[in-house]
Design goal:
- This protein is mainly β.
- Helices cover 10% and strands 41% of the residues.
- It has 3 helices and 13 strands, in the order ββββαβββββββββαα.
- The protein has helices at 32-37, 156-159, 164-171, and strands at 2-5, 12-15, 18-21, 24-27, 44-50, 56-61, 66-72, 75-81, 91-96, 100-104, 108-114, 119-125, 134-135.
- Strand 1 and strand 2 form a beta hairpin.
- It starts with a strand and ends with a helix.
Length: 172
């Protein structure tokens, strides 16, 4: 497991060793002690499967830390700092495959777009689900996220998220 700090404090890119074998591959996606070193004690493991490329979810900042990693396919992840700090609104993007993971601390917005069909997306969290969250518009011009797929599919709820400026104004 290799870790690399990003420009958003607390967000860590993780390189996972994928070991090919005659039938496919193997990876250690979860190791309690290694994740504890990042400050995360896992309470729940979620798996989402997406049949098509271009499915987008987010941008959500939940009240838990997340450890994200696809086990098949690829995702484009857009991470936005939504915490009240000097890096509020900072965006960093990543393309993730089975040998990649991201650690995203609570309060940091995370979103993803499937860039390959038949993508399976795993995320581990350190708190059980609750409806609390902060969300921001996927297409906010201030964030200027360049989604890699032309035709995107997203939920009505995500389409109704406020702009970063509106979120900033709510907090003022």
């Amino acid at each position: 497991m290799r870790t690399e700090e990003t420009s958003i404090p607390g967000v860590v890119r993780v390189g996972l060793q994928v070991q090919p074998h005659g039938d496919g591959w193997f990876k250690e996606n979860f190791h309690r002690e290694k994740l504890a070193e990042l400050g995360m004690v896992v309470v729940q493991h979620n798996v989402a499967y997406f049949e098509d490329a271009g499915i987008v979810r987010g941008i959500h900042a939940e009240p838990w830390d997340k450890y994200l990693s696809p086990s098949s396919g690829r995702v484009f992840a857009a991470i936005v700092d939504l915490r009240d700090n000097d890096t509020f609104g900072r965006v960093e993007t990543f393309e993730l495959g089975p040998s990649d993971a991201l650690y995203v601390p609570r309060g940091v917005g995370n979103s993803f777009c499937t860039v390959a069909p038949h993508t399976t997306y795993n995320f581990l969290v350190n708190e059980h689900w609750s409806p609390e969250r902060v969300a921001v518009d996927l297409f906010d011009p201030e964030l200027a996220i360049e989604w890699p797929v032309r035709e995107l599919k997203y939920t009505e709820r995500d389409a109704a998220n406020p702009s970063l400026a509106a979120l900033r104004e709510q907090r003022a």
